[in-house]
Design brief:
Blueprint lengths: L6 H8 L3 H14 L20 H10 L12 H12 L6 H10 L17 H11 L8 H6 L1 E12 L25 E8 L6 E6 L4 H15 L6 E6 L16 E5 L14 H5 L10 H4 L41 E4 L5 E6 L1
Parallel strand pairs: 1-4, 4-5
Antiparallel strand pairs: 1-2, 2-3, 3-7, 6-7
Length: 343
């Protein structure tokens, strides 16, 4: 204004309304430059509710349950803040603001069995997986020692339903007929390299598991000069009693109720993906004799690091995580069948 501009010109330059420019001009004439600041009540002053002392006390208080024994919520935090400051009430929104201020967010708890492995059990498993090697040939023997993990997974005629993207208001349909016929996929994985060995069978039992172990030992070349430490769970048919373990294979059983420490658990997302939202008429159409039900047509789409950070077990030399071209059958007594492949 001191440069000779009119009110409308100043308003256009500053993107203000002419009325607001006139109000600022009146303030300046009455109180000088200091009157142009923010005049809102207590705006920009020190916090009165979310004070550093209150937030520090809240961090300690929230580690224990609230007085009613339930779960902490924004309104409960607001009532605690009112009691802390000795005021009649604090708005519920301030409770949410306080939780965010101390670095908290709403998260779904991860389920865990009450008897799951403790930190001590996990350390014991790591120590048992790497036996102590002494002597002059320890270095050579260590280089020939490999760590593998295995697990079984059940697939069958019970539908696997997964969420998909669809237009708003148009709910997609996934055909399915609940029947309880199963095939059992056994996956072996070497976490250090991502190499995998697969088997598929129509039953699980100790006799079948012996054949699976024998095929695995042959596939990876286990023997007197190459030792394999195999981590597995405590399923009944895995027990060492009356189990013929191939030469070069050492079984290490993980703590009970602890699937999160099993590397082979990451394999099953890739096994289920081609079967999701599909209906199979018979168990034969699902298994190895079917029309490529376990074949993933576009594996590269899951290998894009910016889209889908996949575990190392998916980064195999073959493009297909499950390659149906390398099957061969074992025929066992009692009608049991086993098919195997590796890459």
């Amino acid at each position: 204004m001191s440069c000779g501009y009119e009110v409308d010109e100043v308003a256009e330059l500053l993107s203000f309304s002419p009325r607001w420019v006139r109000a600022l001009l009146k303030r300046y004439n009455e109180g000088g430059a200091g009157a142009l600041g923010d005049q809102r009540r207590r705006n920009g002053t020190k916090p009165t509710i979310l004070t550093p002392d209150a937030l520090a006390a809240l961090k300690e208080r929230i580690k224990t349950p609230p007085d009613d024994g339930g779960l902490w919520t924004g309104p409960k935090i607001a009532r605690w803040l009112a009691k802390f400051h000795g005021v009649q009430a604090v708005h519920d929104q301030r409770g949410w603001d306080a939780l965010i201020a101390i670095g908290y967010s709403i998260q779904q708890p991860r389920p865990r069995h009450p008897e799951a492995a403790s930190d001590k059990d996990r350390s014991a498993l790591k120590k048992s997986s790497w036996p102590q090697l002494r002597g002059s040939s320890a270095g050579i023997r260590m280089r020939r020692l490999k760590i593998w993990a295995m697990d079984e997974h059940r697939i069958g005629l019970k539908p696997i339903v997964r969420g998909v993207w669809a237009p708003v208001g148009e709910r997609p349909i996934a055909l399915g007929h609940h029947r309880f016929e199963w095939l059992y996929v056994t996956g072996f994985v070497e976490p250090a390299s991502g190499r995998t060995v697969w088997n598929i069978a129509n039953a699980v039992c100790k006799e079948m598991f012996e054949r699976v172990l024998a095929d695995f030992a042959k596939s990876v070349g286990a023997g007197p000069t190459k030792r394999i430490v195999l981590q597995l769970d405590n399923a009944g048919w895995h027990g060492p009693e009356n189990l013929a373990v191939p030469d070069g294979i050492r079984l290490v059983f993980q703590p009970a109720h602890s699937p999160e420490i099993q590397p082979a658990e990451h394999l099953w997302a890739f096994v289920n993906e081609p079967l999701a939202n599909r209906c199979f008429a018979t168990i034969e159409s699902l298994g190895p004799s079917g029309r490529r039900p376990l074949y993933r047509a576009h594996p590269a789409a899951r290998h894009h690091p910016r889209q889908y950070p996949v575990p190392l077990v998916a980064k195999s030399a073959c493009q297909d995580v499950i390659n149906r071209s390398r099957y061969y059958w074992f025929f066992l007594p009692s009608g049991l069948r086993l098919r195997s492949w590796a890459h």
